[in-house]
From TrEMBL:
Occurrences of domain BED-type (ranges): 3-56
Organism, as annotated: Dreissena polymorpha
Keywords: Metal-binding, Zinc, Zinc-finger
The keyword Magnesium belongs to this UniProt entry's keyword annotation: no
Protein name as it appears in the record: BED-type domain-containing protein
Region feature (Disordered): 45-70
Amino acid sequence: MPPTPSAAWKYFTRSSDKKSATCNLCGVNLTYIQGGTTSNLLNHINNKHPYSASSNDAGDSKKQSSMSSFLSTPNKVCVSESERITCAIAEK
């Protein structure tokens, strides 16, 4: 059974000579030798485009939460801080 293609190829296009690959997100050209590993390609995605790759696509990238998710998640604020903020707003 042939090996599973790397997730890197979702973000890169191989050159015709198969010695390099071009990032589909920013156009940078990275060295790649067919039959080698795609670690340098995945490292590029994780380091330069961390929010473009989901956590299971390109290793340990961190996915940015959506604005609606951020706004709907209540912040844990102690009562005294909450009162201080409310008073500061009420004074304006």
